[in-house]
Amino acid sequence: MAYEIVKHDQEMMRKVNKGNILNLIREKKPVSRSELARITGMSPTSVGRIVTELIGLGLIKETELAFSRGVGKKALLLDTEPNSVYVACAQIDEDVSRVGIVDFDGTIIRESTCICDAHNMSWDEFTDKVCDEIEKVIAEADFDKSRIIGLGIGVPGLVDTAHGIVLSSPQLRWENIQLAKHVESRLGYKTTIDNVIKAKALAENTYGSDRDAKRVVFVHFGTGVGSALITDNRIYRGVTNSAGEIGHTTINPNGRLCDCGRRGCLQTYITERALLQEARTIRNISGIDEIFEAASKGEGWAVSILDNLHTYISIAICNIICMYNPNIVIIGGKMVKKPPEIESIIKEKVDRQIWAQFQGSYEIKCSSLGEHAGLLGMAVLLVNKYIDIEL
Amino acid sequence: MAYEIVKHDQEMMRKVNKGNILNLIREKKPVSRSELARITGMSPTSVGRIVTELIGLGLIKETELAFSRGVGKKALLLDTEPNSVYVACAQIDEDVSRVGIVDFDGTIIRESTCICDAHNMSWDEFTDKVCDEIEKVIAEADFDKSRIIGLGIGVPGLVDTAHGIVLSSPQLRWENIQLAKHVESRLGYKTTIDNVIKAKALAENTYGSDRDAKRVVFVHFGTGVGSALITDNRIYRGVTNSAGEIGHTTINPNGRLCDCGRRGCLQTYITERALLQEARTIRNISGIDEIFEAASKGEGWAVSILDNLHTYISIAICNIICMYNPNIVIIGGKMVKKPPEIESIIKEKVDRQIWAQFQGSYEIKCSSLGEHAGLLGMAVLLVNKYIDIEL
Q1: Contacts of A28 in chain B (CB under 8 A)
Q2: Are A266 and A225 in contact (CB under 8 A)?
Q3: CB contact under 8 A, A239 and B325
Q4: Model pTM score
């Protein structure tokens, strides 16, 4: 038992140290080994071992001899290698899925979308169609295919990342699907799946407009409603990777009946279906775009529906601010299209509704990565896993 | 600017390293320096510097020469020194405040309560009475008074810990009170104040029955309703130390009017005042104990009020589980007295109300530290601050 504890401590420490070294190289490149040792307080031996491992993985390289900061003689400096590894990524949703190839620097070198209707296809038909698209993108993109380190798929719903299983996706209507295993046997790449909202949050934190923010929440208002908190550059997952499921917080104990069989869940007031249901009590419309369009023409019924939607979106954000106290709230999803218009509408409502104590503590922004966030987030996750710095 | 970044990295790394070393000594004592270096991957120089600092502070001591694990020759081992430092602590509330002296090992060597009515005293009268009680306890307790490292006060409400200011405490009816400064000038000890719920959560995590739990939420149902999340042994504070303010999440957009001027805040359904208001529509009672008593005799009106209370407490816990996905939820406060009876009532309601996906992911427990949690939590905070490992 004592041995186990020691092993665990060492393992944790090793990952933290490796993550710190890689982040320092990314930030201060080019940088010398002695500088890394000086900053971290680690022994030159430990720094050397990690650097050797990262060079072995091809992620960093030695540049020419140069004077390093604070050191009197020339030393070999370390820099990152952008084309060292690539991740094939997909973000799937009930109607349109997106696939792409992302390099080590977070550049999407090729991407594509495919229309897959989860409600009218079996899960394996759906997945095969997405796999075809991934194969196509890999084939068409110009890069060294042997450098693909794996496949990452962002999925709406609850995901058991460790076992590659989609536990439950009300959006896709999937339950207990062995997604990673199926994709691996189909395409031959090691496959990692995760909740797409957590992936998007990580991408916004890593590549978005507020990289220095310390407490970032991404809130997705789409088919469902979900959120993810990033604190000190790490996803806050909770014990079963289910933190942030604000869609199923109770907002009205005697409210509308939800898919989940309970009453008054927040998402019964916000999702596409809720809007359509309400609209159809007075208009025979075919999709929510008709509501947006009618509202922009000033038609009273549509303006009223959207105003109500924005009120509930603002309540969701106010509740998130109370619970997570973030400095940045990033909103995305098809219910909050048309930035910057929607940004100012929501900001104004939240500023009016929020508990006075929180005023001035937060910013609200529309996603700057938009449709690309899911792919970029899965790429970050796979690179961390590849380097074994996932914590 | 580059220099600033380097400084910041070094500062962070130094605190993390020091915290790791101290925790390892606490866990594996007696333990040698070389063992610490081996486990952490730190250089013997860095380990030696930290150990020297901790010995200098008197918190750890060298024991006799002994064989250390995995080392072929005898070495000096390191152990903690329980009587090295003491913290004078207080947890204040609107009616009864508690003060005590806590040693380095988290033992309360002396404590006392005092009745101070915040609603009928000015804030400085109130504070002076608490200060008198602290002075009395310090005088009466048998310990080396020169070893008091500071005074810690847990306060209900929003606290600016950095500046020692109570920003807003609806419970005490205080706004922008320079509490730390006042107490310091009165008693002469360096004073740290913090939100008492965060302190209690930290104490439950450090000394409670589930020290190994990784995601612990403490929820307080008292004069107000609040919660605090501990993740990997650290308080999740948010950007303005206000995370966990679930009392002001909206639970019913058209609901009851709250103190804060908004409608349908969770705490309008849970607090003492809400219960009294409801009860008094049909019975002229003097306090909530009469409701608890009548309910235990089976009087319908009281049973119904408590049933409704427990429903809202359960909704609060369900919403917390959705947002934080903890493995342990610890409940405390005067609205949930009488464990284990209340524990099983709440457990049953939450199990019935929770979204199916979370079933089996959490445990719900009554506080095992009870009334002592606030004192112990403030002691942990002050020791961390003293050693400069607060992150």
Answers
A1: 2, 5-6
A2: yes
A3: yes
A4: 0.89
| Token pair recorded at residue A30 | 């080019």
Cα separation, A249 vs A315, in Å, equals 12
Span B328-383, pLDDT tens digits: 999 999 899 877 789 999 999 999 999 998 999 999 999 989 889 999 999 999 99
Q: Which residues of B touch A24 (CB under 8 A)?
A: 9
Token pair of B303 as six digits: 């049973």
DSSP labels, A296-319: HTT-HHHHHHHHHHHHHHHHHHHH
Inter-chain residue contact B238 with A27, CB threshold 8 Å: no
* Pairwise CB contact (< 8 Å): A40 & B9: yes
The two tokens of residue B107 are 């033992």
ipTM of the assembly?
Answer: 0.88
Contact A323 B325 (CB under 8 A): no
Tokens linked to B123 = 């804030």
Nearest to A219 by CA among A373, A380, A391: A373
Quote the minimal CA–CA distance from B139 to chain A in Å. 39
Contacts of A46 (CB under 8 A, 6+ apart): A17, A37, B41, B42, B43
Q: Phi-psi category of A58—alpha, beta or left, where left has phi over 0 and alpha has psi -120 to 50?
A: left
**Does residue B29 contact residue B79 with C-beta atoms inside 8 Å?**
yes
CA-atom Rg of chain A in angstroms: 23
Nearest CA in chain A to B213: A239
Q: pLDDT per residue over B17-75, tens digit each? A: 888 888 788 778 899 999 999 888 888 888 999 999 999 989 999 987 776 665 567 78
What's the CA gap between A66 and A32, in Å, rounded? 9
Chain A residues with CB under 8 Å of B242 CB are 322, 325, 357-358, 361
Instruction: Enumerate the residues of chain B whose CB falls inside 8 A of the CB of residue A240.
Output: 325, 358, 361
List all residues of chain B from 77 to 96 with a beta carbon under 8 Å from chain A: none
Burial B76-102 (b: 16+ CB within 10 A, else e): ebbebbeebbbbbbbbbbbeebbbbbb
Q: Which two tokens stand for residue A381?
A: 């996750």
Q: Are B272 and B286 in contact (CB under 8 A)?
A: no
Helix (H) or strand (E) holding A296: helix A288-296
Backbone angles phi, psi at B280, to 5 degrees: -70, -10
Quickly count: other Cβ atoms within 10 Å of residue A70's Cβ: 11
